[in-house]
């Protein structure tokens, strides 16, 4: 998008995508804090984990059925295309994308998958003393121990990915003057006139997917 092109603020991120984003931020943040606190907070830590798993399920389904800019096919590009975009970034000539740019798109997928691993392994994790996931009894002690180790190691990888994601946001917000944070709050972004069609959310479809995710949360909470 050329900087001289007239722009207008149009809806890009639908309400379901925004609720997912901030819900996941809250769930991961609270899970981190409660896990560090331990003790009586571990029951809340597990509830936050159920929320993470449920939110990930929602986003995976929404990535195929959601509004245009929330779909994986809109922002997952080939490795070659992504590398070319990286070269443009380094040269200071990278174009602006209405939705996620190629690097941001792969980071979104990486974060979703890391959150999935974190949440799912937590369902089988155990501290061998007071706390264990709702599905720990379904696997052997060795398997539970292995998944607990993965749960701990993966969280450090997840934190690293989150840090890289935040650096990318700062870069676009500060240096490219793209209001990414604001856009994820109210859903609008300044876009070129050639992208004059707003990304309307299929509300009923979103409601159905949300019910599926809520049902999973309820099931995990009941089992736990």
From TrEMBL:
Could you state one GO biological process linked to this protein? Answer: respiratory electron transport chain
Which part of the chain is the Cytochrome b561 bacterial/Ni-hydrogenase domain? 12-187
| Sorted UniProt keywords | Cell membrane, Membrane, Transmembrane, Transmembrane helix
Give one Pfam family, short name only: Ni_hydr_CYTB
Transmembrane annotation, as ranges = 12-35, 41-62, 103-125, 153-171, 203-223
Where found?
Answer: Cell membrane
Q: Which GO terms describe its cellular component?
A: plasma membrane
Annotated protein name in UniProt? Cytochrome b
């Amino acid at each position: 998008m050329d900087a001289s092109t007239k722009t207008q603020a149009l809806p890009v991120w639908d309400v379901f995508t925004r609720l997912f984003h901030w819900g996941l931020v809250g769930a991961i943040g609270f899970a981190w804090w409660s896990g560090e606190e331990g003790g009586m907070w571990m029951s809340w830590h597990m509830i936050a984990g159920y929320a993470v798993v449920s939110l990930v399920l929602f986003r995976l389904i929404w990535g195929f059925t959601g509004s245009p800019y929330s779909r994986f096919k809109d922002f997952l590009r080939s490795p070659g295309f992504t590398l070319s975009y990286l070269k443009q970034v380094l040269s200071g000539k990278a174009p602006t994308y209405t939705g996620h740019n190629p690097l941001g798109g792969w980071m979104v997928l990486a974060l979703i998958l890391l959150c999935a691993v974190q949440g799912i392994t937590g369902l089988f994790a155990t501290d061998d003393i007071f706390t264990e996931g709702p599905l720990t009894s379904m696997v052997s002690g060795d398997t539970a121990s292995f998944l607990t180790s993965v749960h701990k190691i993966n969280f450090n990888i997840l934190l690293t990915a989150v840090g890289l994601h935040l650096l990318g946001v700062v870069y676009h917000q500060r240096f490219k003057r793209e209001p990414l944070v604001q856009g994820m709050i109210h859903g609008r972004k300044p876009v070129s006139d050639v992208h004059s069609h707003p990304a309307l959310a299929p509300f009923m479809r979103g409601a159905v997917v949300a019910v599926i995710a809520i049902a999973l949360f309820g099931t995990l909470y009941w089992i736990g």
